[in-house]
Amino acid sequence: MNQYPKWKYGLVLIAIFIGLIYSVPNFFGESPAVQIMPTKASDKLDLSILATIESTLKEASLPFDGIIQEPNGIKVKFSNPDGQVKAKDALQNALGGNYVIALNLVSKSPTWLSKIGAIPMYLGLDLRGGVHFLLQVDMKAAAEKAAESYLNDFRMTLRKERISYIGASRLNEIVKLQFDSQEELEKAKKLIKVNYPDLMVNESPSGKDKALDIGMSEMGKKKIQEFALKQNLQTLHNRINELGVAEPIIQQQGLDRIVVQLPGVQDTAKAKEILGRTATLEIRLVDEDKTDIATLESAQKGNTPFGDDLFKDRDGRAILVKKNVLLTGDRITDAGPGVDQQSGRSVVHVTLDGRGSNIFKQVTRENVGKRLAILLIEKGQTEVVTAPVIQQEIGGGRVQISGMNSPQEATDISLLLRAGALAAPMQIIEERTVGPSMGEENIKRGIHSTLWGFAAISVMMIFYYMVFGGVSIFALGVNLLLLVALLSILQATLTLPGLAAIALALGMAIDANVLINERIREELRNGNTPQASIHAGYDRAFDTILDSNVTTLIAGLALFMFGTGPIKGFAVVHVLGILTSMFSAILVSRALVNILYGYRRKIDKLSIGQIYRPHQD
């Protein structure tokens, strides 16, 4: 007799039950929703705004299907996109700049499933819709920015070591230091070579003065470019995390490009604005000696005084600031919107790191009574946000930036500064938008192809192997169920290649059942009893099934380890499909065969199709 111990039947039943529970949420679809999050990802959501949200939607006559509370935000579900868009505008006006309001999609599955962790798998851009960006990193700007940073470091280092110099300037990627004596030049040359081994230091004639030309080696340029790409990748990760996008794809493409895919994002204009902006801060001193009208008018005509840059403030007034950058946005550790208690206007509160705090404290101590210009650099345009007079030394690393036009601007600038400055500007060179309807069409086609393939396999197996073919199809259905459940439990991202991998997994999984059925037929041809044939068929087919699946598993693991993007997604589904197919083909089908035939002591015939016995002479 062929019987499993009871615990094996229990294991199969538990696996099928878990598969049902965790795969069901994927079939409910998604609802349009409005997502409300604090402007700072580290802040906890004040749940008292629930009443504000409900009253706002009620006053605007916007019915909603439910409110989902999450650790980092709230999602309000709507029955149609029209109500979703109207609700976003109403909530934005009601909640102000302290919250990020974005359009999103949420699952329609029941709340009780979510409470036990049964949530749908993530869908990729091609299935869910969203936006795809290809960004080009400006490597030349990265090298120039690094040279500007070196220029500021050289000034501070030479002052600290009491090495006198008469000029420091930068031309593209070359920093020039001028000295009035050869002795001071040699001291500086030795100091820079020791502290900056990646730089090339050369003496160059500069009239009667002595000068050093300091540039980056090829190795140094390569390091800076690699750093710029990594920094931009990290900054994009931070910005997208602030937007609350689930499972974004942010990866390097080539030497100077970055691919960004945001599945489910409907507010593409907002996403493009946040990703494309390159906001950072610079703090410089206003040139107090050149504030007269004549000098400013001359500067506006193109005659900018040496050592100064001409910018305009938010009221359009021209201001001359010194070229020397005292502090940059790289020293910012946190930023958040706020309100000035005296004026009531929107401001941005900035926190500096230890070194930035010390620099700012020294600058304010040495320049009491002078004006400090805070510059916002965005999309290559520099604007003086505010230029207050330094009243006293400011310590503690807390800086308030006033001059914001609206709470929303304060919120956006805070997000950009908090997420980090880009190491180099980026330009969006390709943009593709996949609408939810197109993603839904891709899902339908993928499901239809899988179902048609399943149906074709079912007809062939039942026709050829009769009852044993039906057992194989049941095991194949369990395989599909477990595969979908595993993808949901692991929260894997399913893409079109992943759907192709599911269809392929079904085709490969049936091979194991074909091997088992043919082994049973072979035992019957050799004159064994039906019970002995079933036992021998499963036992002798196991080694072959294991060998074939292990070799395929190795190929899938190689694709996962060395592939990227869609290839990796295909590999994940492929590998999981192999594991579930072995479980279903060996355990599930054997359990069902044992139930059908295992309890019978005498069986005259197995319903496994036509068996041709060898010809006897």
TrEMBL record:
GO terms for molecular function: protein-transporting ATPase activity. One of its GO terms (biological process) is intracellular protein transmembrane transport. InterPro entries: SecD, SecD-TM, SecD/SecF_arch_bac, SecD/SecF_CS, SecD_1st, SecD_SecF_C, SecD_SecF_C_bact, SecDF_P1_head. It is found in: Cell membrane. It is a multi-pass membrane protein. Residues 426-595 form the Protein export membrane protein SecD/SecF C-terminal domain. Keywords: Cell membrane, Membrane, Protein transport, Translocation, Transmembrane, Transmembrane helix, Transport. Residues 311-424 form the SecDF P1 head subdomain domain. GO terms for cellular component: plasma membrane. It holds the Pfam family SecDF_P1_head. Residues 229-288 form the Protein translocase subunit SecDF P1 domain. Part of the Sec protein translocase complex. Interacts with the SecYEG preprotein conducting channel. SecDF uses the proton motive force (PMF) to complete protein translocation after the ATP-dependent function of SecA. Belongs to the SecD/SecF family. SecD subfamily. This is Protein translocase subunit SecD. It comes from Candidatus Methylopumilus rimovensis.
